[in-house]
Amino acid sequence: MIKSNFREWTLDKIDETFGTEQVFQLPSLDLLLSFEYEPNQEEKNYLNKIRNTYSRYGGESWNEVELENKIISPLFVYAEIDNKNFVYFLERDLSVTIDEYELSGRVDGMIASGFRNPKMPYFCMNGVQKRNRSKWRPERSSINCNVSCTSIK
Fold first, then answer.
1. Which residues pair with 125 in a beta bridge?
2. Residue 116 in contact with residue 127, Cβ under 8 Å?
3. What is the pLDDT of residue 68?
4. pTM of whole model > 0.70?
5. Residue 99 — left, alpha, or beta (φ > 0 → left; ψ -120 to 50 → alpha)?
6. CA angle at residue 64 from 60 to 68, to 5 degrees?
7. Which 3-state string (H, E, C) describes 14-51?
8. CA angle 99, 101, 105 (to 5 degrees)
9. pLDDT per residue as tens digits for the range 87-138
10. Distance (Å, whole) CA 125 – CA 109
11. Cα separation of 29 and 123, whole Å?
């Protein structure tokens, strides 16, 4: 078994090791995104408040922790997704075995089954780490989603 931390993996290394490639259309995602919802006035006000905070107070220069705390987490909390079946967990350890690789690390956030501790992740996000902190450009950061993890440490 080859053990490795998530931080050691680049998109190129993932593609080369597992034969993955970027797709630009996915029927299951198209179906999910076809869901229509009209927010009520309270929800619109909240979303506008978050948008205005981002645009008025330098959001394009925020680092990933600032984005997580000022935008992403408030949206998950406002959506009230937590219940006894799944929860929005932060800064938790995650591991997955794919072929002969055991990958593990601490992820920024995940929606997973479980109550006090995550069990099976449904959605996982982790910001791309800065290689050289002095040259990091926030506009190049991204969120990685992974729905195929099979176990959590």
1. 109
2. no
3. 87
4. no
5. left
6. 100
7. HHHHHCCCCCCCCHHHHHHHCCCCCCCHHHHHHHHHHH
8. 135
9. 999 999 999 899 999 999 999 899 999 989 999 999 888 765 444 444 444 4
10. 5
11. 13
Q: 133: burial class by Cβ within 10 Å (0-12, 13-18, 19+)?
A: exposed
Given a contact cutoff of 8 angstroms between Cβ atoms, the answer to whether 91 and 111 are in contact is: no
Q: Which two tokens stand for residue 101?
A: 């690789």
Please name the helix (run of DSSP H) or strand (run of DSSP E) that holds residue 130, with its range, or none. none
Amino acid at 67: L
Alpha helices in 19-140 (DSSP H): 27-33, 41-56, 64-67, 73-79
For 40-68, what is each residue's pLDDT tens digit?
999 999 999 999 999 999 999 999 889 98
DSSP H or E run through 12 = helix 11-18
Query: Distance between CA 113 and CA 122 in Å, rounded?
Result: 8
Q: Please determine, for residue 73, whether its predicted confidence score (pLDDT) is greater than 70.
A: yes
- Are β-strands 101-113 and 86-98 bridged in parallel, bridged antiparallel, or unpaired? antiparallel
